[in-house]
Amino acid sequence: MRGDIPGSIRGSVSEAYPHLMFEGFTSRLGERVCKVLKHLFPPRDPITSKTKLSNRVVVFKNIEDVIEVRHYVYVRTAHDSVELSEVGPRMSMKLFEIRSGTLENKDGHVEWHLNQFTRTSRKKDYL
Length: 127
Fold this sequence. Notes:
Layout: E1 19-23, H1 28-38, E2 56-63, E3 66-76, E4 82-86, E5 91-94, E6 97-99, E7 110-113
Parallel strand pairs: 1-2
Antiparallel strand pairs: 2-3, 3-4, 3-5, 6-7
Protein name: U3 small nucleolar ribonucleoprotein protein IMP4
Domain Brix: 1-104
């Protein structure tokens, strides 16, 4: 949580809504995972003359069922060029289970779970 980060009260943590980018989520399960990840971030406000666009980008990239997460800030250097700099923590996530309901509801319906010991002739990519 933002409040748990030391120094966040002084304003060192950005509160701008990030642009979300998803790459490699082509299957039906991948589209479901995209929807879940999108709801982790609050919705963006409509662009008006008073609100400024955010310069934060969060990228979720699917590489052989491992979700790589990168956090960038961009600066427009010229009319047609942009400079990216990585600012956030890097993460790698592996999907374990999708369960309907809330975290408190332990007996919710399991939509999908990872089978560790499935015998297949080749590795299957689910996302």
